[in-house]
Amino acid sequence: MTIGKSRPAAAGIAPGLHFIATPIGAARDITLRALDLLAGADVLVAEDTRSLRHLMAIHGIALGGRPLWAYHDHNGDQMRPRIIAALKDGRSVVYASEAGTPLVADPGYQLSRAAIEAGLPVLAAPGPSAVLAALCVAGLPSDRFLFAGFPPATRAARRAFLAELAQTKATVVLYESPKRVGETLTELCETFGQTRQAALCRELTKRFEEVARGTLAELAERFGGREVKGEIVLVIDRAAPARAGAAEMEEALKMALRDMTVKDAAAAVADALGLPRREVYQAALRLAGAT
């Protein structure tokens, strides 16, 4: 990657805690607003200071004597008071996760809560996210989704975790370690069912990006015995709606027929219960003829 020319510092960065999203792969995916914040903030905070220094160098942003503090899972208790003190002094503080959007599988949550509880401004500059990138390329419904993070590492806890998600009426998005992804796919077959549609997204926006789509059984076979490298996002289709029984359909039709024609009642019940209209219409005719 070519190091960019020096970028002038942006003026007028408002005091407060600014969360910025950083690239998950391609360095050019960072937003112009995030670059302005990096160039002009009083204090920079990063989950990984080396990664942020490298990103700033690529885009020609000089640190210029400003403090750059590390904030991660292992030093949060010690660093939060220091960051809150800087915010209370009226300084602008930028926090950047190692990659992607802060607070998504990231230690920024407690920092956000601390600033909010102290009555300090908390702002976000949206941008790259592995969750949203995976949803875009998976080819699965995205109108309702659940990001469930990383499954537990131990087998028993992971199986319980996956079983709880199996009937979710939303597309499920998981992060997983490349070392465990084969085992997790096998367990997903057992808990979600082998025929559930899914996508395995690997190294999104990077040079060796790969998106594999198919049933969970197909993905488990493809990746089960293979050495997998890189960052993994699994996207799994939602559970199919449970089919209503005859008794439930009949009860719904009786209620609908009090105020509707046979045709309208059948259409309303079919849509509400997710049943074939012809089947419901025939049942409505029988009920109407019996009254």
Automatic annotation (TrEMBL):
Domain Tetrapyrrole methylase: 17-220
Record-linked PANTHER family: RIBOSOMAL RNA SMALL SUBUNIT METHYLTRANSFERASE I
Protein name: Ribosomal RNA small subunit methyltransferase I
RsmI HTH domain: residues covered: 244-287
Family to which the UniProt record says this protein belongs: Belongs to the methyltransferase superfamily. RsmI family.
This protein's encoding gene: rsmI
Native species: Aliigemmobacter aestuarii
Catalytic activity: cytidine(1402) in 16S rRNA + S-adenosyl-L-methionine = 2'-O-methylcytidine(1402) in 16S rRNA + S-adenosyl-L-homocysteine + H(+)
Location of this chain's protein in the cell: Cytoplasm
Pfam families the UniProt entry points to: RsmI_C, TP_methylase
Keyword Cytoplasm: yes
